[in-house]
Amino acid sequence: MERREIGIRAQDIQTALQDVELSGPASGLLNTTVLTGMAERLSIHIRGIDIIDDERRLYALADRLGIGGLVLDSVLSLMEQAEFVSVERSQGKVKRVIERVPYFEDIYERFGEIWEARNPPDEEKENLRILNELASSPRLVEDVTGDFPIHVDQHRVLMEVGKEGGYFAEFLSPTDGSPIIYSPLYWEEKPEETFKLVKKYGSERIATAIRKVRAYQGMPIPELGPESTEDDQIIVEAMVAGLLPSPQVDSLKGPKRFAFTPYQGQVNLAATERPVLQKARAILSCVRYGQHFGTITRVKDPAAIIRALQLKGRIGPHSEVARQYAILVVEGVGRITRDATYSDRYYLQIVDTEENKKALSIAADILEIGEAITERGLNVAARSVLFRPGIMKEPLTTRSEELLRRKRDPKYSSESIKHDIEKLIDEVRQL
Amino acid sequence: MELDLEIKLRVERMLWASGFYTRTDVRLASAVKGKSSNSGSTMDLTDVDVLGIRFLEDLSPRKTVVDCKSGKNVSPIGRAFWLRGVMDHFKADRGYVVLARTIPEHQREAAANLNVTLLNVSDLTTIEARYGELSDDLRIGKLDAHNYLEGNIRSLPAGLASLVGFRDTTYWYSTTPRAMSQSISLVKRSIGGLDLKQRFHKAILMDVIGLFALSSVTLASDLMRLAPLNLLDSIRALFFGGPEGIVRREQIIRQFQEILSKISKQRELPLDQQDLFQLDPPYLAAIADAVVRVIARPIEAAEAPRYLKTKLMHGILYDEWDLPEIIGDSYSPLADKIATDIGLAFLKSCGLGSDVAIQLGFK
User: Fold this and answer.
1) Does B338 contact A at CB distance below 8 Å?
2) Quick one: A247 and A331 in the same domain?
3) Which residues of A touch B334 (CB under 8 A)?
């Protein structure tokens, strides 16, 4: 698991378990994970405060995040380890907290690193691993094989704790009664459709296809044809089965659908919250339409459009706005107004409500998570595939030629080459 | 004591008392054609005796330059015209010429039209009185502290010469983003020569951090004027000369990477290390973090360079670290915190860890 994933899952677990008492066999079972999640949530909440010297307010805030007074000091210590706070203590009590939570660096990566460094027991590792697997796809229980050697009883306790917290859930196959496990955090509760898909393709292949969508939320649904891949097939079938929310946008290039993973962001999303998520997906779908199917000008930076909507409350004028963003009028997110000078151009004006602001913020989050994952994928996989074969690694010459070449070649240490490249690029930056 | 220096230090204290961050003996130079910009390839043009920089509540900078001459044969109005040119160069809005001679009244008026005030030593005493006397314990503008620092900085080993050149000269003719990148690059390249057990190695590092803070506040000021939708994007744009500059630089790096990939002689090129070929330097996020904090607390952040200079003149030079005691009633924990944030962002950008932060009094 990547460190960033560890950090995110730890926060999800802590949020889910906030109101669950871990006692009996579950007591102390997920200490590192829960503590990490607490530190992440507290970090996010205090970012920008600079100095907290009112101890009571700190305790009150922590309490609302499910961080009891007894564990607050441990949570702060973990944040100190991340170098996100400095804590001044007096007679064992927190006197002042100096906050340094970064705005532009990935706090989940850092906490994931600390979680790893603390080397939690195998139970915690297994718990996180299972949740991470289920983030991509539900699985047959028999397929959830343990990577870590934990006792079957402990495995059962993990499952029970997860179910209690609402991040694990199980249903039985309607046909043969096989148990399927999924996470309501990341997957819609549709037993029959899920089962059919799992049976047809197997959870691994589904997971691969869904990861693609997770890495690029609002992915245009591919049109199936002779050249379609199996991933395309799975995504389309999951959409038809209603497992992947896929809002439709209709503009000059015709109707298009955009796929999202059913990520809900929190356990047991309240009925009143669901429309907000639906609005967020609708917003991102409209922006993706402009990005992939815009005719006059294509959107280059979808995040910039969402930021403009957040900060200015409107975008435009543009001739495609009226059709491209029409679903946002239906969803109650915005209004379309005609430009006073050019009658064929329109503005999208956000209806200023708390719900719409929240929807925009969720849209930005969904986009950000998708982009971050996409970029990592590109760096590690695509690039190395492009450059390594033929040029770097493959033996292009006979052995003797190879030896001769080696003899002639200047051989610098990779460190010194790296140093030279760094220096050169630094110069480019300073042009 | 040299009379020029005595006047300079009095002016420095006067400016400090009125809220300015101060420098003495700032050299004006220009880069010399045909040489690398990072190897002391500059030609001195002139120097400024005292420079004061102060940020207003909205972080707009106010700059004052001062020329101090103790000679009797100096032409007051001649110096005023010269200083006007220097003011334009620094974008300073105020200038002072301080002389140890009488000043003809008509020359005072002519100079005032240039926004330059001609002062003799007794005028200086009057102005000093307006801003109140600084505590005698404050080491800013004190002769012994000044000489202690400057004398030892001049004796630093050759490996640190680029840092000395930067604080004396290069910084002052560089644009804000360039000065920030250069300060980080130069410190990174000097790490091997820095021995932080040595007091004056720490001193040069802290002085560079003070200049970095000055640039951070200036960058924040530029950003506040832009009121950007996305701060990180705007910082990138400022760093790399706008969207066209970003595209141009990215193209150069891509081409460079492409050319490298075709070189077969060297068999182990780090072509798969994508982070190596990024235009965005790894420290951009840390700088952006520091700038966000400056923008969020402009009044306190405006003081950050002064707090860092106080840490240098007291903490680093004399092991006096009790800032509330040194600064007195006007001490602000928030300003101290933001100064520390900027310092930590700088160290992080240079790849220096918490051990260095502790040695510089940041923890």
Assistant:
1) yes
2) yes
3) 50-51
Q: What CA–CA distance (Å, rounded) separates B38 from B354? A: 27
Domain range for A310? 189-398
* Contact status of B271 with chain A (Cβ, < 8 Å): yes
Assess if residue A406 is contained within a domain: no
Tell me whether residues B229 and A308 touch, CB distance under 8 A: yes
Task: Tell me if chain A has a CB within 8 Å of the CB of B279.
Answer: yes
pLDDT tens per residue across span A266-313: 444 555 566 778 888 999 999 999 999 988 778 888 888 898 888 788
On whether both A141 and A198 belong to a single domain, the answer is: no
From chain B, the residues in CB contact with A428 under 8 A are: 249, 252-253, 256, 279
The distance of Cα A136 from the centroid of its chain, to the nearest Å, equals 11
In this predicted structure, the answer to whether residue A36 has a pLDDT above a threshold of 90 is yes
Instruction: Tell me if B14 sits within 8 A of B54, measured CB to CB.
Output: no
A118 domain-assigned: yes
- Which of chain B's residues have a Cβ under 8 Å away from the Cβ of A97? none
Are A418 and B268 an interchain contact pair (Cβ–Cβ within 8 Å)? no
A418 and B240: CB-CB below 8 Å?
no
Whether the CA torsion A216, A222, A226, A232 is positive or negative: it is positive
Single pTM value for the model: 0.74
Asked if B249 and A428 come within 8 Å (Cβ–Cβ), the reply is yes
Query: How many domains does chain A fold into?
Result: 2
Strand order in the sheet with B94-99: B21-31, B42-55, B61-69, B94-99, B116-120
Last residue of a domain, one of A179, A205, A223: A179
Question: Does A65 have pLDDT greater than 70?
Answer: yes
CB-closest option in A51, A308, A387 to B337: A51
**pLDDT at residue A271, as a whole number:** 53
For residues A376 and A295, membership in a common domain is answered with yes
Write the ipTM: 0.78
In a domain, A274, yes or no: yes
Q: Distance between CA A127 and CA A32 in Å, rounded?
A: 12
pLDDT of residue A401: 30
The verdict on A249 and A145 lying in the same domain is no
- Residue A29 belongs to some domain of the structure: yes
pLDDT > 60? residue A411: no
B276/A425 Cβ within 8 A: yes
DSSP per residue, B119-133: EEHHHHHHHHHHT-P
- A232 and A200, same domain (yes or no): yes
Strand partners of residue B28: B46
Are both A318 and A233 inside the same structural domain? yes
Mean pLDDT score, B103-112: 92
Give the list of residues 6+ apart from residue A392 with CB closer than 8 angstroms, or none: B267, B268, B269, B271, B272
A213 and A207 Cβ atoms separated by less than 8 Å: no
A173 and A286 both lie in a single domain: no
Q: What is the pLDDT of residues A90-137, one digit of tens each?
A: 888 889 999 999 988 888 999 999 999 999 999 999 999 999 888 878
Whether residue B68 contacts residue B26, with contact meaning beta carbons closer than 8 Å, is answered with no
A150, A179, A208: which is the final residue of a domain?
A179
| Same structural domain, A120 and A205 | no
Mutation pick from A46, A50, A379 vs chain B, by most beta carbons of B within 10 Å, is A50
Higher-confidence residue: A258 or A298?
A: A258
CB pairs under 8 A between A and B: 113
> CA–CA separation, A203 vs A382, rounded Å?
24
